[in-house]
Amino acid sequence: SRVLECQGLPIVNGQCDPYATVTLAGPSRQVLHKAKKTKVKKKTNNPHFDEVFYFEVTRPSSYNKKSHFDIEDVDEVDKMEIRVDLWNASNLKFGDEFLGELRLPLKFLRQSSSYEAWYFLQPRDNGNKSLKPDDLGSLRLNVVYTEDHVFSSDYYSPLRDVLLKSADVEPVSASAAHILGEVCREKQEAAIPLVRLFLHYGRIVPFISAIANAEVKRTQDPNTIFRGNSLTSKCIDETMKLAGMHYLQVTLKPIIDEICQVHKPCEIDPVKLKDGENLENNRENLRQYVDRIFTVITKSGVSCPTVMCDIFFSLRESAAKRFQGDLDVRYTAVSSFIFLRFFAPAILSPNLFQLTPHHPDPQTSRTLTLISKTIQTLGSLSKSKSANFKESYMATFYDYFNEQKYADAVKNFLDLISSSGRRDHKSIEQPILLKEGFMIKRAQGRKRFGMKNFKKRWFRLTNHEFTYQKSKGDHPLCSIPIENILAVERLEEESFKMKNMFQVIQPERRVLYIQANNCVEAKDWIDILTKVSQCNKKRLTVYHPSAYLNGHWLCCKATADNTPGCTPCTGGLPANIQLDIDGDRETERIYSLFNLYMPKLEKMQEACGSKSVYDGPEEEEYSTFIIDDPKETYKTLKLIIEGVGTLEQEHAQYKRDKFKKTKYGSQEHPIGDKSFQTYIRQQSEISAHSI
User: Fold this and answer.
1) Cα–Cα distance, 304 to 306 (Å, whole number)
2) Is the pLDDT of residue 64 over 60?
3) How far apart are CA 578 and CA 200, in angstroms?
């Protein structure tokens, strides 16, 4: 028996050091030979063993029916089997982990002298041991299994191109992505593959901007903006879940871990108070937790992923244009996502957002519910907040937070995460002030013979520009557009023998050197300047950590003032989260959904025809679809149905070829592959039926 190789073994506790044991077993599963073992292959789940084991069975002279069997009987040989068990060599005290086994009856081998095939590993076989029904409990499961066969990328080009153009279609309700949302039973079904596809191809922001803008135009009351389970809401939820996972880890995880471990009593409902608990102490415990989480969230603006900020910017713009008389709507449009659909649910159910491995215990869960309710209300910026609570004890507790400083902190946070360094000339919004204050700056040497001395100036940063003036309210002496900020980095103390300095690097190697009042202020300015400029196309990758003085750079001693930087830029925060997404897999998923809901696509085509020739009351079966432009929608539907039809033919052809050509036992279809066996059975039935 030659054990060749394995592929895709499970990784157990972060490691995989596999080995195989090979055993020859008799008719009653008794072991005829001591198990033989391969070498352990370290740190791989695709081990290549290529080891040979020999087994020799001879009839002993002292034949004993109880311990041996008569190998002269051919039937007995057929009942023998080779068993290969895969194990993970573990350092843990309870021994090595079983990964799976395969059993190979010798009767297969007797048909040919050599037999080579791939096998699926199976769970351990209990042999003839049967458990009484009473020995185990019962478990009811509802399992959904989806299998996608993904072709190479070129097969998907027609359907993918139609989908990726969705953001540019006028009106957006006539686009392929919007149509998918219309025909799917649940908007979530459509949102998951669409978001992943658009994120993969860098088109998520224009697509969500387009569908959000269309939804805002249909919204009559600013108080209900983005409150429904629309395609827009589901797509933004899904984007935040994917792109914001790291953001949640750095903001909420430390304090959520503490709440789960410390178990401080925080019950503030007098009816639910346990014996020995003090209501005031519990209120204080809860208040401290809420305060800490609120501060962590409202100070985390610079960590918010760029893709989320760009989406929030477009939501703010659409809301401000649609409801120009309502100054709060630009905030509620953003808070309805970042607070109500991101932070509050993550606090309430941290296990669903990968913040904790398990569902919290009942006491912790109650604490998190109370915190989540309060944070949600703080973030909503509604006028009469105490009235938001059905429970009088929550309204009483909320009085702690009825101060202007909380509303201001929320607005400043929302301003930062919904500002974009990209100028939008159609924007009706005034520039958003992000930070201002006195600092000391060194003259940039714009005048040829001017002195390069240090002066105190009032600095002001908006999402459009970074300026300084003599005093607050004066005319700016210098203005740097955000797109001209190529890097923001600390400056070594050796340069001017001054602490807390940083540099703002601009085109043509012009550098503004600034000293902040203290190290905390310096960090805040660096973070926020980096945040607003991190999408600039010409951002630098290297910089000089010290100044150019007396004819050379103090850091690398290079003499030319235009020498490229000698140190990699810190880059601040990642401009975008890298996601492991397979664009073809997502297009295949979307094809499957269109195929599943083909009757609805055809019904939508009928609705387009009906709308374009008849302007009276709609038939009830058509009224469920949003169709703003019947001609454009019909045109897109035609392209979708053609693309789906072509892919359906390709799948049918692939299945026919697979049935004819694939050898059972090949790597593509190992022995034990139940799905292939079922497929063969189905094909046989189809063939028999057609005959």
Assistant:
1) 6
2) no
3) 9
Nearest 5°: CA angle at 391, between 280 and 402?
65
Taking each helix axis as running N to C, give the angle between helix 187-200 and helix 157-164, from 0 to 180 degrees, rounded to the nearest 10: 100
**What is the rounded CA–CA span in Å between residue 349 and residue 237?**
15
Please give the Cα distance from 365 to 267 (Å, whole number). Answer: 11
Q: Given pLDDT bands bounded at 50, 70 and 90, which one contains residue 82?
A: confident
Q: In what order do the strands lie in the sheet with 487-490?
A: 478-481, 465-469, 454-462, 433-442, 511-515, 501-505, 487-490
Indicate the residue type of 669. Answer: H
Distance (Å, rounded) from C-alpha 453 to C-alpha 441?
Answer: 8
Q: Rounded CA gap, 53 and 36, in Å?
A: 7
Beta bridge partners of 21: 37, 85
- For residues 622 and 499, the model is more confident at 499
CB atoms within 10 A of CB 621: 11
**Please, which contacts does 675-678 make with residues 24 or more away whose CB atoms are closer than 8 Å?**
675/147
Q: Which two tokens stand for residue 205?
A: 């922001």
CA distance 117 to 261: 51
Rounded-to-integer distance, Cα 335 and Cα 331, Å: 6
323 touches 222 (CB < 8 A): yes
- CA dist 132 → 28, 124, 135, 138, 140 (Å): 21, 19, 5, 12, 19
Number of H helices, E strands in the chain: 21, 17
User: Tell me: the pLDDT tens digits for 139-183?
Assistant: 666 666 566 788 888 999 999 999 999 999 999 999 999 999 999
Please count the other Cβ atoms lying within 10 Å of the Cβ belonging to residue 7.
11
User: Average per-residue pLDDT in the chain?
Assistant: 81
For residue 328 the two structure tokens come to 């709060």
Per-residue model confidence (pLDDT) at position 124:
76
Q: What are phi and psi of 291, to 5 degrees?
A: -60, -45
Ordered by where they begin, the domains of the chain are 2-144 (2.60.40.150), 245-418 (1.10.506.10), 433-568 (2.30.29.30)
DSSP 628: S
Closest CA relative to residue 375, chosen from 352, 344, 335:
344
Say if residue 691's pLDDT is above 90. no
Higher pLDDT, 261 or 222: 261
pTM above 0.70, yes or no: no
Residue range 496-519: average pLDDT?
Answer: 89
Query: What is the chain's length?
Result: 691
Residue pair 24/57 in contact by the 8 Å Cβ criterion: yes
Residues 595 and 601: their CA atoms lie apart, in Å, by 9
